[in-house]
Amino acid sequence: MADILMNFQNGLDSYLTKDQINAKAPLVFAKAPTNPNVTDKYLFVNTETIVDDLAKLNWFPVEVAQRKSRKAEGTIFSKHMVAFQNPDIKITSADGDDAYPRILLTNSHDGMQSFRFSVGIFRLVCSNGLVVADEQFSEFRIKHKGYSFGELRNVVKQAVKDLPKRVEVMNDMKNRILTEDEKRKMALDAMLIRAGVDTLEYDEETIDDILEPRRDADKGNDLWRVFNVVQEKITQGDFHAALTGAKVRKVRKIKSFEKDLKVNKELFKLATALV
After folding, report:
1. Residue 202, SS3 per DSSP
2. Which of 105, 99, 135 is nearest to 119 (CA)?
3. Helix orientation angle between 180-195 and 223-236, rounded to the nearest 10 degrees
4. Cα distances (Å, whole numbers) of residue 268 to 52, 94, 128
5. CA-CA distances (angstroms) from residue 193 to 31, 96, 150, 230, 237?
6. Dmax over Cα atoms in the chain, in whole Å?
7. Where are the domains of the chain?
8. Which residues 6+ apart lie within 8 Å of 262 measured at CB?
9. Rounded alpha-carbon distances, angstroms, from residue 68 to 16, 17, 34, 72, 123
C-alpha cells in the first residue's frame, strides 16, 4: 500500500490578496508589454488575468516574486513568478509528512517568453518548496498570442492528472535506502549544482553539515528524507562550507526565484536518478 496518498480536503490557511501580490511583484499587474519592440502578433495578457482564471479553477496564489532591478524597466527585468495552491488537494503521508501540490507560473511581459507552468510540492513539515521536474514531466507552456481560459483549464487538468505519478515517485524514494557513500555523493553533487560547476572538492565537515537533519522528521537513510535534508540546506542555506584547504564560509539562502527554481529542478533530477 502506498505510503503517500492523494487526499481531497477543504480549507486553506491563507492565500495572497492582490494588494499583497502587488507589494512584492507589481509586474503581475503590468498593463502593457515592457518591451516596446514587440510585434503585432504579440497578444498582451497580463499575469493578473491568469491569477483570476486560476481562482475560477480553485487555485489561489500563495507566493510571488519578481526579478529585482535597479532600473525601472527593461526586458531582462520583467520576469516574475506566482505559486498557486488548491485548498482541496493535499498529499497525506502515514508518517505525517504531508504536503500540498503547487502550480508554479513564470511569465514576462517582454514578448519573448510564453507562460510557463511547473508543478511543485510544498512540504508542511518544513515549509520547504520542492519543484518537481523529471523526464516524465515536462513544463507546460501557453503562448501569449494563443491564450484562452480553455487552454489554461486543460493545462491545470493535465497537471492534476499527472500528480499520482509524482506521488508514486515520492513513494519510490521513501523505499530506496541509501548507503553512506551515496548520501555523501548526493550532498557533494548538490553543492556543485548550486555552484553551477562540474568539479569542486569540499571538505568532509561541509558534507557532514549538509547531511545533518534539522528536525527529527527528516532523520533516516531513505532517499526521500535524505533528499529533503539536502534540498533544504542547498536552497535555504544557513550552514558552513569550505573547499578542501580553504576558508570556511557561511552559505546563505538563494534569493533569486529563478535560480531557486533551476536548482530545485536539478536537485530533483539528481535524486530521482537514484530510484
Report:
1. strand
2. 105
3. 30
4. 30, 22, 14
5. 37, 30, 37, 12, 14
6. 58
7. 4-175, 180-272
8. none
9. 20, 21, 15, 10, 27
Over residues 147-163, the pLDDT tens digits come to 788 888 988 888 888 88
Q: Which of 97, 158, 167, 121 is nearest to 264 (CA)?
A: 121
Exposed e or buried b per residue across 71-99, where buried means at least 16 C-beta atoms within 10 angstroms of its C-beta: eeeebebbbbbbbbbbbebbbebeeebeb
Q: Give the whole-angstrom CA distance, residue 78 versus residue 55.
A: 23
Cβ-proximal residues to 219 (8 Å cutoff; 6+ apart), any chain = 213, 225
CB 243 within 8 A of CB 202: yes
In the structure grid, which three cell numbers stand for residue 138, read together? Answer: 515536462
Q: Which residues of 159-172 are buried (b: 16+ CB within 10 A; e: fewer)?
A: bbebbeebbebbbe
What are the grid coordinates assigned to 235, written together? 536552497
Measured in residues, the chain has a length of 275
- Encode pLDDT of 168-223 as tens digits: 888 899 999 999 999 999 999 999 999 988 888 898 999 999 999 988 888 999 99
- As given in the structure block, the three cell numbers for residue 160 are 492534476
Beta strands, E only, 67-186: 80-85, 90-93, 99-107, 115-123, 128-132, 140-142
Beta-carbon contacts of residue 47 (< 8 Å; ≥ 6 apart): 27, 28, 29, 30, 80, 82, 105, 107, 109
